[in-house]
Design goal:
mainly alpha, 434 Repressor (Amino-terminal Domain), 4 helices, Helix-turn-helix transcriptional regulator
Length: 82
């Protein structure tokens, strides 16, 4: 039996897009360079809690619904060896 229901999380990029912001607009409002935001969207585990709260304010989206963990890239194996 499940006693609680966790809300799904969306990516940092999805939160920005849902807020209707471009990389340039969002980075200005957050107070960072656009290259930093690009880096954070690729690796959200780099975002410190202070910046997470600022992103929450700018995107008007709760931080507990944005994924700020490490991303893992899966590659498919096309090998027929085994």
């Amino acid at each position: 039996m499940v006693l609680f229901h966790e809300m799904p999380q969306i990516t940092l990029k999805a939160a920005r897009v849902n807020a209707g912001l471009t990389i340039m607009n969002a980075s200005k409002l957050i107070g960072i360079s656009h290259s930093t935001l690009v880096k954070w969207e690729a690796n959200p585990g780099l975002v410190s809690p202070i910046w997470q709260r600022k992103i929450q304010q700018v995107y008007n989206f709760p931080i507990n619904h944005i994924f700020f963990g490490e991303t893992v890239e899966f590659k498919s194996s096309d090998s027929e060896d085994g």
